[in-house]
Amino acid sequence: MKGVLILLAVLSGFILSRLGLPASFLTGPLLVAAFFAVTNRPVIRSNLFIYRLAQSVIGVMLSFTITAKSLQTIVANWFPVVTLVVTMLALTTLIGVGLRRFANLQAGTALLGALPGGAGEMIAMSDSIGADVRLVTVMQYGRLLAILATVSVVGHVAGAQPGGGHHAALAPIYHAAPLNYLVSTVIALIGALVGVRFRIPAGTMIIPAILAAVAGILGIPAAPWPPLIMASAYLVLGLQIGGNFDAGVVAQLRRLGWFILLSNLFLLGVSALLAVCLMPLLKIDLLSAYLAATPGGLDSVAAMATDLKADAALILAVHSLRLISVVIVGPYLVQFVAERLNRQSVNVQNSES
Length: 353
Fold this sequence. Notes:
By secondary structure, this protein is an all-alpha fold. It has one domain. Helices cover 77% and strands 0% of the residues. α2 runs parallel beside α11. The longest helix has 41 residues, at 312-352.
C-alpha cells in the first residue's frame, strides 16, 4: 500500500507540474498523503534526520533568491519597498492575532498561517516552533489559490497577455562544478544535523541559507539544486505533512473555513489598495504593483510575473526581501506575540476568578 502511495504522490506532482502550479511536488504528495491518512490507509513517516535534511535543502535554495539585480532594485526604491514589507508583516500579524482570538487557534498556528512567506517555507517553519503544520498548510495554500484567481482578474483589467507560460527561474542556471555541488551537500547536511541536535527556530532553513551566502562571498559558491533534488525534498515534506491529517483535523477545518476565507479576502483587498498606492511611487503598472504587494509565495509570484510580462525584477526584489525577513524574524515574532497573548489570557482568567 505504501508503494501505491509513493506512486500516486509522484504522479500527482507531475500532473500539477504540467498544469503550471508552483511547488507541485509538495502540493500533490501532500494531498495524496492527506487522503490516505483521513481514510485510515497506511502513510509514510520519514525519520527526523531525513525530514530535517529536506528542510535544509530548501534552506540552501533560499540563498539564491536574492540576486545583484534584485539588490540594486531594492536600493534604488528602498523606502517604498521597505514600507511595503513592514506594512504587510504588521497587517498579517494583526490578522493572525484576530484568527487566534475569534477562531480560537493556537497563537503560533494563527500567525504562521497568516504571515506572507512562501507556503513551503512557512510549512517547514511550523514544525520547528510547535505550530499545527496541518492548519498552517491549509491557510497558506488556501491563500495561494485565492491569489492565483485574483491575479487573472487583475491581469485582465490591466490588459496583460500571458507570454506562453514560461516560469521564472529563482536561481541562476549554470553548469556547476562538482565542488559547488559538494558545498551545497555539505551545507545541507550541516543544516540537518543542527536541526536534529538543536531547537533553533527555523534553523534548518536559516542556517543553510546563511552558510550558502557566506560560501559565495568566500569564493566557493554553493550550486543550486537540480530539479530532481528539489522535487525529492518537497516530496518528503509533502508525504510527512499530509500523513499528519486525520478526521479530527478535517472537522476543525470545517469550523475554521469561514474565518480563513474572510481573512484571505481582507488581506487580498488590502494588497490591492497597496498596489494602487505603489503605482505612482514606483512608476509601474497595476499588475506589477499588485504582484509586488500580494502575499503569495516567491516561486508562484515569479512564475506569474514572467508569464504576464510584469516587472519581474522589482517583484522578485520585494518578495525576496519579505521572504528573508519572514524567515529570520518570523519565529521570534511568533514567540513574542504568543507569549503576550498567553499572558493576557492568564490575566483575564485571574481577574474573572
